[in-house]
Amino acid sequence: RRVAITPGAYIRYMNTEYDGRQWQSKDNVIQILPGDGHPEIKEKLDAELEERKRLCRYYNSLQETVNAARRDAEDTRSELDKVRTVMVTMTTPSFLAGISPCIDMGKAGGNLPGPLFTFHQLMLACIREYNEQDITMAVTTDNPIKGTSLYLGMTSLEVPDATRKLLQPDELLITIRIRGQHYVVLRHHPQIKVVSCDHTFTESCDQLADLVSGDTGLEAPNTSLDFTFKMPNTSELIKCGMLGRLYFWLQELCGLNVIPPRQRPPHTISAVTPHTLIKFLLSL
After folding, report:
1. CA–CA separation, 115 vs 187, rounded Å?
2. Sign of the C-alpha dihedral computed for residues 204, 281, 264 and 101 taken in this order
3. Nearest by Cα to 198 from 260, 190, 206
4. Which of 31, 32, 44, 26 minimizes the C-alpha distance to 5?
């Protein structure tokens, strides 16, 4: 059954948009004239249909090109991610693997000083990796061993006010608790750029000095302190309790430069990692 279509309806049909795009310009739209008969109208519609088929094929080919380009771009990004991972691994010490990079090493992690933040992140990752239950860490302003004879030192010493100001530590400190009995306390001294250590393992001798042979913590980790402190000197300040032990290995774990006045101990301090430190603390 034939349905009569007026020439006006054909004109409106031929001038519509398909799939959101104008397939032909206004000047190239096939005109259905009022005087056209059925054969003429059919011929014009057939021509229009073929043109639209051709444009659809062209559109599909362009879409395939776009999709292929997107797939190539995704593959390239994936390869770049792999290369970037390898590059980071090659330039990062093994004990730093899996540590999130610190955006601001100056005052990061809730205003924790940069060196202490570095140490905290290294130790925390190691504790989690090995699921150590006997060691816990905390960032606090309270020193759990303040007031003990170890902290106060065993000798009295007259220390100038200027020296006391230089020794002033940051407010925040790190406490490491071992088996709920012993403490290791780390403090950062921004004026002299060192990290000091106090502990409660024993008051008769310093057991942490056994971690690296020759690294007693009584020497200045860099030569500048030998010129900063004369009377009393760095070693005397440590022995009297004004300053904690300045182990060379501790400075390196905190990311601080170590320039000792003499040659380093026989066993390299760089061999001390968070894992070896944890094992040593648990052995005491």
Report:
1. 10
2. negative
3. 206
4. 32
Q: Which residues on adjacent β-strands are paired with residue 97?
A: none
Q: What are phi and psi of 4, to 5 degrees?
A: -75, 130
Beta-sheet strand order (sheet of 173-178): 135-140, 173-178, 182-189, 194-199
Return the pLDDT at 265.
52
Residues of the chain with pLDDT under 70: 1-32, 84-110, 147-156, 202-205, 260-270
Cβ atoms < 10 Å from Cβ of 162:
8
Q: How many CB atoms lie within 10 A of CB 163?
A: 17
Q: Count the neighbouring beta carbons within 10 Å of the beta carbon of residue 126.
A: 20
The distance between the two most distant Cα atoms of the chain, rounded to a whole number of Å, is: 120
Closest CA to 253 of 273, 237, 232: 273
**Are the C-beta atoms of 118 and 255 separated by less than 8 Å?**
yes
CB neighbour class for 146 (10 Å; exposed up to 12, middle 13-18, buried from 19): exposed
Write the DSSP assignment of the chain as a string of letters.
Answer: ------HHHHHHHHTS-BTTB--S-GGGSPP--TT--HHHHHHHHHHHHHHHHHHHHHHHHHHHHHHHHHHHHHHHHHHHHHHHHHHHHHHS-GGGTTPPPPS-SSEETTTEEHHHHHHHHHHHHHHHHTT-SSEEEEEES--TTTTSHHHH-SS-----HHHHHHHPPPS-EEEEEETTTEEEEEEEETTTTEEEEEE-S-SSS-GGGGSSTT--S-S-SBTHHHHH--SS-HHHHHHTTSS-B--HHHHHHTT---B-SSPPPSS-GGG--HHHHHHHHHH-
Long-range contacts of 64-68 (CB under 8 A, 24+ apart): none
